[in-house]
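User: Run a structure prediction on this.
Assistant: Running it now.
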Amino acid sequence: MADIEYKTVPLPLEPRKFKGLKSPIDRASRTLTEILNEEAKGGWAFVRAERMELEVRKGMLRRIDDVDVTLLIFSRERVESAGPQPARRIEPQTAPQAPEPLNVPEPIVASNAGSDSSDASSTPRTAD
């Protein structure tokens, strides 16, 4: 089932001016044709025209005036990419491995505690 979306465009109160067209009827017809062609380029199909009476407040005293507005109603099939997308499978990623520690020889610490001479520190002690 296809979803349909709608769009309304107000018809201008005064028709556009075109070179060579003097009659208000010709200008209104051409204005309507231009609007229909502009919307058709965007994929919109004309459905109907609807006339509405609106109350508009004008002036410093905010006096209410009635204004007639003609709305052009267009429709088109809703674009599929705007709808819900099917779920995608996301493959698990492995965590990066920590680098192995460098093999650095341990420092040699000379200990002079309890020895009087340098010869004694170089000879191993044995327990008796």
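Residues 4-78 form one domain.
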